[in-house]
Amino acid sequence: MTGIDVVRVELGARAYDVRIGAGLIARAGAEIAPLLQRPKVWIVTESRVAGLHLEALTAGLAASGIASEALILPPGETTKSWVHLQEVVEWLLGQKVERKDMVVAFGGGVIGDLVGFAAAILRRGVRFVQIPTSLLAQVDSSVGGKTGINSPHGKNLVGAFHQPSLVLADIGVLGTLSQRDFLAGYGEVVKYGGLGSLDFFEWLEANGPALAAGDAALRQQAVRRSVQMKADIVARDETEAGDRALLNLGHTFGHALEAATGYGDTLLHGEGVAIGCALAFETSARLGLMSQEEPSRFRAHLAAMGMKRDLADIRSELPNAAGLLGLMAQDKKVDGGRIRFILARGIGEAFMAEEVDLDVVRGVLTDALSAR
Length: 372
Ligand SMILES: NC(=O)c1ccc[n+]([C@@H]2O[C@H](COP(=O)([O-])OP(=O)(O)OC[C@H]3O[C@@H](n4cnc5c(N)ncnc54)[C@H](O)[C@@H]3O)[C@@H](O)[C@H]2O)c1
Fold this sequence. Notes:
Elements: E1 5-9, E2 16-21, H1 28-32, E3 40-46, H2 47-62, E4 67-73, H3 82-94, E5 102-107, H4 109-121, E6 127-132, H5 135-141, E7 146-151, E8 154-161, E9 166-170, H6 179-196, H7 198-213, H8 216-236, H9 251-260, H10 269-286, H11 293-304, H12 321-328, E10 341-344, E11 350-353, H13 358-370
Parallel strand pairs: 2-9, 3-4, 3-5, 5-6, 6-9
Antiparallel strand pairs: 1-2, 7-8, 10-11
The structure holds nicotinamide-adenine-dinucleotide.
């Protein structure tokens, strides 16, 4: 086993470790045992992840004398729903899970968000461990305590802040992700470079292709640096009263594109974020905040990674610029009717823009649409 990196999320009484490295699932029992009141955990996962990795997890727990029960849900975004929330909560109640017990969320962001929310409301809050299995979940959704489900009114509209007690990011499981899911997660990795660290972005320019090809040491470094950046921001602003909004770089555009394409296979969340970052940089350049070379450089890196980088890469009908702006105005981050944009003064220098001239945004979208 290579070395394990530990990032501490400093949240006072709710502080916790994110442990990152290969082989963590095999030693999950030893990692989790110190947190348990009795030697049993309840795992909630989905069938794709269960088929590939559940046996390894139960064996890893059993190796430390920890018994487990598992609930296996269907994979996919539609699982983040009222129906499955009820199923998880009722299953845990039926299993007589108590407040001091430990629930384990084992899967990508869908499982992490759903199970975290179930843990938040079960008996007014039970503890849970995140074992994220997708790159997106390892670098983003498993850290920071945002949990929730989708409503027919929109994505992530029902939820709670509920921090996990521990996060185990086993780099080894990333090996079974499809290339497309891996690169979608990479969209969030490159976002961290874009929002807060030119140095990290340059490191990704140099190492991204090798990392995508499977280099485990580089993957671990990328996850560690991403998690460290998220942990630092969350520690400063747990509930998004300020700085945490920077993590939404690319998301205002991305969410509109996800909504326009039906939140499905046409455009994955991380793909929307990557294109959204490129559009946010383009908008910043048009506003004179950065040189035109910077959005071009950002897009060139996405191209080198074989990722979608522009509206032209989305293979479905899209609304016109006014339609996309309308979708942005429905985002849950709209504040008093104003769309909140994260812009940047350069790659790695994002900030929350107070007033953005929507004509400039409309122009960026119109040009991007006409290039299709
Ligand atoms: N809470 C937060 O802060 C936060 C942040 C970002 C995204 N999210 C949410 O995360 C979700 C997206 O997460 P995601 O991309 O992980 O989606 P996901 O959970 O659907 O996983 C993506 C795909 O990868 C598969 N998969 C997962 N791990 C695998 C593995 N090791 N091997 C093979 N296949 C594997 C899944 O079955 C699925 O098909 C969205 O619902 C989004 O809203 C939440």
